[in-house]
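Support case: threonylcarbamoyladenylate complex. Customer-provided input:
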Amino acid sequence: MKTLLLNADLEHLEEAAALLRSREVVAVPTETVYGLAANALDVLAVRKIFAAKGRPQDNPLILHISGLSMLYDIAERVPKLAETLAERFWPGPLTMIFPKKDPIPAETCGGLSTVGVRMPRHDFTLRLIERCGFPLAAPSANTSGLPSPTSADHVFRDMNGRIPLIIDGGECRCGLESTVICFEGDGIRVLRPGAVTAEALSELAEVRIDGGVLSAVDSGKPVLSPGMKYKHYSPSAQVYLVEGDEERLFGFLSEKVEMGEKIGVLCASGTALPPGCIRLPYGDTAEERAARLFGSLRKADELGCAAVYVERPSAQGLELALYNRLLRAAAFRIIDLGGIS
Ligand code: TXA
Ligand code: MG
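Agent response - structure generated as follows:
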């Protein structure tokens, strides 16, 4: 199959919509990461998403909607709190989980009785959903297990020959996938942290952070969000989180370079690095880091790095989302160099 790349001009809306109506998969930009979209209500179209990504069948897809009326078509019960959150955070990087209605095929939701829903903040994609008139199921548009794509080029590398069309909307603003929450009693539980932070959510509800956010999920046990149990966001390079003062980090990295290892580093711009290390694009604010993380992990592979060492993030604000992705990319390996009181 030939994969066409078109920019996100509204003149390309109809071409994308026509493919989606004819049960095809189209990669679309969102504010978080690129999505691999198809008609969520059509099981044949949804199967093509799983095939293109090589995604495990029990990992449910998020449904993307363009207006609240679509939510009531797919969710069985919508708590008042969900309406409040929608008003505050939609369109935006927040996915809410509801009991699902019948028209959604079981395969779309990985066999679960629930459905994750979000309204993306991207003009082209919102209009596309509106034009189609059906919700778009869309996981991140990467090959399963690789870092999520934050540019059309990343999507092209993973999906060339597998899907007919990629819409290029430039670099994704957030760079990390949406916050995923479910409702619990009067409050909410964060299953996957994202740009809508636990702190922002706690202004409107009582918030609990699921244990799976910062720890490995036991592969035999049931989990609230099936995506948490899979290997994720991993480049071929081995990723390690490191913690320690600047001097010890310098010494540690120097040894690696001396051993002839090609290494990439993600750290603050002011941190001194020994010659021979590759400083990968990162940034000094959590927002910049979130926007660049996945691109830099992909870049490490392009440059042939054997390993990438990343400054360990905190668990506060947006850094919780960075930490969650990095722990998985690093298979939970943390190197404590000491020296930090
Ligand atoms: O920002 C995003 O959410 C991006 C863009 C494209 O919208 N999408 C995305 O989809 O990250 P995906 O499939 O890569 O990740 C969806 C996560 C998975 O961990 C999945 O297990 C979880 O959300 N999820 C989806 N539906 C769920 C449900 N009904 N119950 C529990 N977890 C669910
Ligand atoms: Mg994904």
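The mean pLDDT is 95.

Case will auto-close in a few days if no follow-up is received.
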